[in-house]
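Colleagues,

Please find the record for the two-part complex below.
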Amino acid sequence: MSLSVGGAFGLGDVEVIVTNGRGLNPDELTRMLLPKLIYIGPDVPADIRAAGEVQMARMEALLKHYFAQAQKSQNTTTYNVLMNAGHPEAAQIVKDL
Amino acid sequence: MAITQAFCTSAKVGMLKGLYDFTNGADVFKLALFRGQASIVGTFGAGTTNYSDMGADEASGTNYSAGGSALTNVTPTSSGTTAYTDFADLVFTNVTLTASGCLIYDTTAGNAAIGVFNFGGDKTASASDMTIIFPTADASNAIIRLV
């Protein structure tokens, strides 16, 4: 007679995103973050799923909006730092981003 | 040679010996990148035991430091009968390099290898952000699961 306990180690897959000559933008950051904030499992009843998807869409819009605002606010800060340091041309480039 | 995605066998032994602590703020895990697949000379997978195995097969490039970058652990939890853990997505900022896979290892446990990951092809960044996105943290998809 033997006694054993079954089990297995599992390893998930990673995804790699590479931008092209720039950093991450609000759309990409939102896509990264949203699944970590709200997850709708495959076995969720249809009515709950529908409500969850509505909520997810609202969160997606909010995240994109605030990420974009954070980007603009950072550009404003950088613009002023460059202006105060006597680099108006560089400041203008940042302002035009 | 080749990179085969695998949970390192030595890490399975380490798990049973209680060598790793995935709790947030406990062990420091890092993620190091493998260079482009055409340049890989070693064989990596279940038999990989330590970060030092990477040797010259680790990626190099602008704004990438040997050893890779530290991960942020998400404290393990469970769903049903499956236990799992997760890491926060990792961004290599403004890098210029080519990578074909990565190694997660535990610096607190002497750089013990945990898992080898194949990106399915070369990923090339030129003065860009390279982001490693971890899968949904659930019983079916999480990066490390004990079923």
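Helices of chain B lie at 9-17.

Comments are welcome before we finalize the supplementary table.
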